[in-house]
Amino acid sequence: MIVVQKYGGSSVATTEKIAAIAKRVAARAKDAQVVVVVSAMGDTTDELISMAKALCDMPDDREMDKLLATGEQVSSALLAMALQEMGAPACSLTGGQAGIITEHVQAKARILKIDGKRLKDELNKGNVVVVAGFQGITENASWADITTLGRGGSDTTAVALAAALKADCCEIYTDVDGVFTADPRIVPNAVKLDTISYEEMLEMAGQGARVMHSRAVELGQIYNVEIVVANSAKDVPGTLIKKEDPEMEVRNPVRGIAHDTDVTRFTVVAVPDQPGMAAKIFHAPAGANVNVDVIVQNVSADGCADVSFTVADADFEKAKRAIDPVVTELRARELLIDQNVAKVSIVGSGMRSNPGYADTMFGALAAEGINILSITTSEIRITCLIERDKVKQAVRALHKAFELEKV
Ligand code: ADP
Ligand code: ASP
Ligand code: MG
Fold it and tell me: What is the reported pTM?
């Protein structure tokens, strides 16, 4: 039996916590081959980013990835040592050593393939293999660069390894008991879900529920890896992320509320409305490898349009540098940048076949006096862009309006 476990940053924040995790891992390794993926200790990744920013405004992507990947190397080596100390044979590997090959995109590389030979060899030698999460290596052996998979990417390392090794289970251990109807730090009466479908989890993660990395959920869905999310410090059942089943239909059609404060809104104001305008505007961030979301275009009577979109705060500098020349080229009046925004979303596959959710959502926000700046939807999600300082109030109001405390 092969088990892949992942422990997040807060679960390995101190050497004491690493020793405690080593005990759990060693117990599991008595009757299974175990691969453990770890995040960097505590806030290490944020601290490394601050150090880089202290030296330059926009650090080079390649150097940044090399720097950030060190966080997970520290925690993985320490966990291997702690395991060895308690008599459990263990060996740590970087992402590259574990055979994780990615595309050559710095900062948010996607995994292309996994060569599991070394991993299997170490497992067959009787080792617990501790893999540094969140990183891989580009393919060309002598010119290989270290890449990272995007913030929160250790979850993706774990699910990808579980798929490659055809593991029997993939367990993501974190600092909460599982996936809740909303972030339990914001909604104290949020309820832990026993199960959630890949589709719903993907929408939740994509809209800010950082308990799971979206790419990890996507890989789980593609390779049919069932994922358990549970608490690293307790022995209580967590949440199972799996294929939608008919039983899920009878539950509350709204499964959860997600929110994301890591958002910046760009508005290109009064740009002449002509064919190719949107293509030019959106070509810029795409070329800089920046994802855009919540796109809105308003055309006014004078033949001009305002085009707005959001990007992740972390991509703000890159997006601005890419879009500035286009604003000039298109003779738009100005570029507005608003960082006082946030997204709040309702998610649930039951929304597909039931009307009336938008009405309840907008009504609940209106009752709180919260202004909706723009709206986007998918088949199973409605997202509203609102002012950032209203986001907690919005999440709580929506949780109540959809009676999620009764799930
Ligand atoms: P880790 O370091 O273990 O990867 P993260 O901080 O990335 O942990 O993710 C866990 C956090 O996700 C929780 O502490 C919680 O505040 C937040 N979170 C946001 N939305 C949810 C949700 N719907 N259910 C559970 N946790 C959530
Ligand atoms: N350490 C990385 C981060 O903070 C990756 C992870 O924790 O999953 O984003
Ligand atoms: Mg995480």
Answer: 0.96
- Are 121 and 33 in contact, with CB atoms under 8 Å apart? no
What residues does CATH 3.30.2130.10 cover in the chain? 257-406
What residue spans in the chain does CATH classification 3.40.1160.10 cover?
2-175
Give, for ligand 2, the residue of 7, 45, 64, 74 to mutate: max count of ligand atoms closer than 8 Å to Cβ: 45
pLDDT digits (tens, 9 = 90+) for 294-352: 999 998 888 899 999 999 998 999 999 999 999 999 999 999 999 999 999 999 998 88
Residues 6+ apart with CB under 8 A from 34: 2, 3, 4, 5, 25, 28, 128, 129
Determine how β-strand 341-347 pairs with β-strand 381-387.
antiparallel
H helix or E strand, kind and range, residue 135: strand 135-138
Q: How many CB atoms are located within 10 Å of the residue 49 CB?
A: 17
- 257-406 folds as VC0802-like (3.30.2130)
Tokens representing residue 388 in the block: 């950032």
The CATH fold of domain 2-175: Carbamate kinase (3.40.1160)
As a whole number of angstroms, the distance between CA 399 and CA 132 comes to: 36
In whole angstroms, give the CA distance from residue 100 to residue 298: 44
State phi, psi for 363 to the nearest 5 degrees. Answer: -65, -45
- Residue matched to tokens 């390995």: 12
Q: Is the CB of 180 under 6 A from ligand 1?
A: yes
CB 5 within 8 A of CB 36: yes
Token code pair at residue 96 = 């590259």
